[in-house]
Amino acid sequence: MNNKNSFATYRSIILPIISFAIIMLGQGYFNTFVSIKLQATGFQTSIIAVVIASYFIGLVLGSLGVEKLLASIGHVQTFIFCACTNIVTTTLLSLTTNFWHWILFRALMGACAAGLFITLQSWLLLSSTPATKGKFLSLYMISLNGAQGCGQFLLNTIDSSHHLSFLSFILLAASAVIPISLIKKLPWSVSPVKRTILPILKQSPFGVLGCLIAGMIVNSFHTLGPIFGGQINLSMLQISQMMGFTILGGICLQWPIGHLADLFGRLKVLTVVASIVCLLTLTLSMHLFLPYWVVLALCVLFGAFSFTLYPLSIAYTCDQFSINQAVYITGSLMIIYGSGSILGPLCSAFPMQYLHSSSFFFNMAMLSFLLFIIGLWKIIRSPILPILPTATIEEKPDLILEEESIHKAEPF
After folding, report:
1. pLDDT by residue (tens digit) across 137-152?
2. CA-to-CA distance for 208 and 317, rounded, in angstroms?
3. Out of 2-11, 35-44, 93-102, 160-169, which region has the weakest mean confidence (pLDDT)?
4. Residue 338 structural domain
5. Does some domain include residue 29?
6. What is the domain-level CATH number for residue 317?
7. Is 34 among the domain residues?
8. Does position 196 have pLDDT exceeding 90, yes or no?
9. Number of domains in the chain
10. Which of 84, 169, 171, 288 has a C-alpha 20 to 30 A away from that of 30?
């Protein structure tokens, strides 16, 4: 890709990234606000985890229908539809304190989030080449984590008992519609095909495992991090610092790690990152022996590495399929990621409530250790598959994944 084409490609993805960052700024704040709001209301940690899980149940269910929505109305209109539905849902949520209403509306917000995530992920993949796939997905994570990290600092400026806590997210979601609505037409279309996750699981089990574990680790921190901070007696300022700086830390290494993955292979880089996350979380599980500033610094490093697990897993999986399958692959992996996001908080909440706060990071250490061991075994036992060239359906029909005819499954 020459410099002129490269500039044109990056320019074509600026507006959707800006819109995505604006709405994620509000969502980053609001997701943390939900845990704090429910804890202040008097709900137990395990009950809060159920409400949190409903968001990710919606994320999984919403992922099932995004491909059809994209095929029907396109990427731009799908993004606008999800943003506007979020506005309506949050408005209704601000009018009730009923536990079951919160479960329902948070599930709807999760479904909208699935639409936003898959829309931008597939947009970037369809705009990329094999040589830029890792860097493009790093842009997605930079916009996501940068916005969500900055959103944490809104916790210090807005009273959780005031309606402004809901209105701030509503205003940001409405503002996010403006940049993306300026886009007239995209050079691709999506054709939905009835498929299951099973072919992806057979073709790339390690990529699927990476997405599952990434969901368990990252969203355990997102949702239970504020509760962990309360258990170790951090102030609201310290909780917002821990959450904000950790999520902002998630943008620091996205581009360099994405670039390294493009150069040296996703498998090697993903395995190394998993080992580093294991060491960091194991150290953080001994937080009782560490001063606050050390815990904060380790959390930033944890965010820098752990938040790259998901884009690395997506890129690793997509390497083995045609670029034409971008929407199908990202939608399927979002279901896997969402499933991990449901399991992670539930698996961490009960040990945190009935055992000790150190189990919060210890669970993450065990998960990342599992990913590291399997990745290391795969590097030793299996040859690294070459990155497939960009192809169209007409040029490379054998690259199209069909349920009844798939490539030979790679060893786990």
Report:
1. 778 878 887 787 777 7
2. 8
3. 2-11
4. 8-399
5. yes
6. 1.20.1250.20
7. yes
8. no
9. 1
10. 288
